[in-house]
Amino acid sequence: MATSSPHAPAPDEPSPADFYLYETLLADDERKILDHARTFLREKVKPLVNEYWAKGEFPHELIGLFRDSGLTALSWEGYGEHRPAVSHLLSGMVAMEMSRVDASVATFFGVHDGLGFYSILAGGDREQRERWLPAMASLEKVAAFALTEPLGGSDVSGGMRTTAERVGDTWILNGAKKWIGNGTFADHVVVWARDIRDDQVKGFVVDKGTPGFEAVKIEGKIALRIVQNAEITLTDVRVPESNRLQRVNSFRDVAEILRVTRSGVSWQALGVMIGAYELALAYAKERRQFGRPIAEFQMVQDLLVKSLGSITASWGMLVQLARLQDQGICRDEHSSLAKAFTTSRMREVVASCREIFGGNGIVLDYDIARFFADAEALYSYEGTREMNSLIVGKSITGRSAFV
């Protein structure tokens, strides 16, 4: 699809959204990785996204491109091209760069490289990690993460309906999952189910093609249309004990995985803000009304400054969150506050930036409509604002308000 999108910064140009120069916090070798990611995403990924977003399809050629990019498994020690794990600040900024180009691509990568990969890394034993992770780190195999259910989202921790029953050395899974990113084509799906014997949540790696496993694409989405979300049904799906994640014994273990990956969504939200702001700023300088660029109008400048303030505040919060993660002292409430705050600010920023485009802001050619729509999905997944607020509220008051 041809695009009329205004000029965005070249890969080697500093972003006008980095008003407080946060990128200077990276070491020189880290900056080279970020610059490589920025160039790769702008040159290889951006040309594809509008066409596939409009069709609601996934560009599978991206898997091969990412496989050769050196950007997989950045965060995980011993995997990927960068065997020592990079800092959380760098991995966060790479996630930010992905969403700065397209939130769907960032979500695909976050599900595979974050939720799916880390579930096995954190929950699997040595044999399981050696069996699955090398191929996942190189994107020879794609992962998905199946937690949410048709009748259970925020309450799935205590109301999981998908069951697992052990019969000898085999587990039999029954139930349904919904909104599972990558679910239609993933090679390995990490399925969470309630053990009917002890009522505890356990994790299982279900391979594509397993009898009784069915994944149907969810149609009609208005956000993250490139992401292939599936509704999954499990009918007497037989999984060997060797495919049960051996270090997962309750939902507390699942919550630990979500704590680590939730910060990635916050960085994605920041990327969406930056992408929308850059588009709006460039458009305001080029679009003329009443004989002059609309960037000279006070109300347009006010929208841009408010957006820049939200970006700058969110970026500062995430820099400190990354430091806490690198020091090993990040808690659930730290990640939850970041997710609640950044996604709320994201909603405001994309609305303001779309407003600057006027009528042009509702067509895909200018890119901003895609950012505006996709923000709604990031606002909801990995814990709604309300649920994350309750996590933080319990921390600061010492009292739980969960029903």
TrEMBL record:
Instruction: Indicate the segments forming the Acyl-CoA dehydrogenase/oxidase C-terminal domain, all copies.
Output: 253-396
Q: Where do the Acyl-CoA oxidase/dehydrogenase middle domain residues begin and end?
A: 144-237
Necessary cofactors: FAD
**Cited SUPFAM superfamilies:** Acyl-CoA dehydrogenase C-terminal domain-like, Acyl-CoA dehydrogenase NM domain-like
Keywords (alphabetical) are:
FAD, Flavoprotein, Oxidoreductase
Q: Where is the Acyl-CoA dehydrogenase/oxidase N-terminal domain?
A: 28-139
**Which family is it part of?**
Belongs to the acyl-CoA dehydrogenase family.
What is the protein name stated in its UniProt record?
Answer: Acyl-CoA dehydrogenase family protein
- Origin organism is Actinacidiphila acidipaludis
